[in-house]
C-alpha cells in the first residue's frame, strides 16, 4: 500500500501592520504632488471669476436708465421672507439730482466721501485713514469705501465680506467711474442707498422722516439724514440717540462752513 504523504502547510508570513504614522505619510506623499495643481486650478478659476466683471454688468446702460431694483433691495426682501415678514415692502421713489436739495448733496458727500469730486473711484487717503483708525481702536470702526464703491455694492453685490467680492467690486467701480459722470454716480447713489428698514433712496426717506420733498430739506435735516447712513437700521434721523445727535452736529458744522464758502461773494 502506498502511503499517502501528507503535505505540510507552512504558515503564510503575515504582512507587517502599517502604523498610523505610516498611513498618514503615505497619504501625504499622494496628495503633496497634487497640491500645486489644485492651487493652480483654484487660482485660474478665481481669476476667471473676477475677470468676467470686466464685461458684466452693462454699466453703460446706467447713463440714461434708472434701475428699478438693486441687489441690496433683493437681499432685504429675501431676509424678510426668511424672517416671516412677508408684508414688508420696499419704499422707493426716484428723484432727479436737480430736485434734491444741495444741503443733502453736500451733507452726504461730507459724511460719506469728502473727496468724491477729486478721486477716480478709490480714495487711497481715506483707506489709509480708516486702516489707522481700525488699528488704533482694535476693531473695524471705519470703512474707507467711496460713494462709487458703495453704489456698485448696492447695485450688484450682496453684503458678504470677502476678498473675492472686494475684487469684483473694484473692477466694476473702475468701469462705473470711466463710464459715468460724477453727477450721475451721485444721483444713482442717493436714489439707491438704504435709509431705514425698507426705505431706499432720498425720495422715500425725505417723505418718511420729514413729510417733504428732497428739494425742501434744511441743512439740519440733511445733516441728520447723512448721519445715519453708516447704520440705517439701527439709527434714524429723528432719533434722540446721542450718537446720532453728535454725528449730526459734526456734519452740520462742516456743512455750514461749506455753504458759506460756496455763497456768492465769498472769498472761498
TrEMBL record:
GO biological process, one term: cell wall organization
GO cellular component, as recorded: peptidoglycan-based cell wall; plasma membrane
Gene3D superfamilies: Biosynthetic peptidoglycan transglycosylase-like
Domain Glycosyl transferase family: 87-255
Ranges that cross the membrane: 38-56
Role noted for this protein: Peptidoglycan polymerase that catalyzes glycan chain elongation from lipid-linked precursors.
Family listed: Belongs to the glycosyltransferase 51 family.
Full protein name: Biosynthetic peptidoglycan transglycosylase
Species whose genome carries this gene: Desulfovibrio subterraneus
Gene name, Swiss-Prot/TrEMBL: mtgA
Amino acid at each position: 500500500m502506498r502511503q499517502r504523504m501528507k503535505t505540510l502547510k507552512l504558515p503564510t508570513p503575515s504582512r507587517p501592520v502599517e502604523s498610523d504614522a505610516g498611513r498618514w505619510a503615505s497619504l501625504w506623499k499622494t496628495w503633496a504632488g497634487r497640491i500645486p495643481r489644485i492651487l493652480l486650478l483654484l487660482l485660474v478659476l478665481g481669476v476667471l471669476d473676477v475677470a468676467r466683471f470686466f464685461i458684466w454688468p452693462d454699466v453703460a446702460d446706467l447713463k440714461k436708465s434708472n434701475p428699478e431694483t438693486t441687489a441690496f433691495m433683493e437681499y432685504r426682501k429675501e431676509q424678510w421672507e426668511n424672517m416671516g415678514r412677508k408684508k414688508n415692502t420696499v419704499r422707493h421713489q426716484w428723484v432727479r439730482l436737480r430736485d434734491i436739495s444741495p444741503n443733502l448733496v453736500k451733507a452726504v458727500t461730507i459724511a460719506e466721501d469728502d473727496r468724491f469730486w477729486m478721486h477716480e473711484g478709490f480714495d487711497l487717503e481715506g483707506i489709509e485713514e480708516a486702516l489707522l483708525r481700525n488699528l488704533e481702536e482694535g476693531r473695524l470702526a471705519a470703512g474707507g469705501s467711496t460713494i462709487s464703491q458703495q453704489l456698485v455694492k448696492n447695485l450688484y453685490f450682496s453684503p458678504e465680506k470677502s476678498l473675492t467680492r472686494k475684487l469684483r467690486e473694484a473692477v466694476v467701480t473702475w468701469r462705473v467711474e470711466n463710464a459715468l459722470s460724477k453727477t450721475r454716480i451721485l444721483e444713482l447713489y442717493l436714489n439707491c442707498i438704504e435709509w431705514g428698514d425698507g426705505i431706499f433712496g432720498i425720495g422715500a426717506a425725505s417723505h418718511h422722516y420729514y413729510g417733504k420733498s428732497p428739494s425742501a430739506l434744511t441743512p439740519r435735516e440733511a445733516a441728520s439724514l447723512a448721519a445715519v447712513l453708516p447704520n440705517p437700521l439701527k439709527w434714524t434721523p429723528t432719533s434722540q440717540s446721542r450718537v446720532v445727535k453728535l454725528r449730526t452736529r459734526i456734519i452740520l458744522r462742516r456743512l455750514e462752513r461749506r455753504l458759506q464758502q460756496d455763497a456768492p461773494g465769498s472769498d472761498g
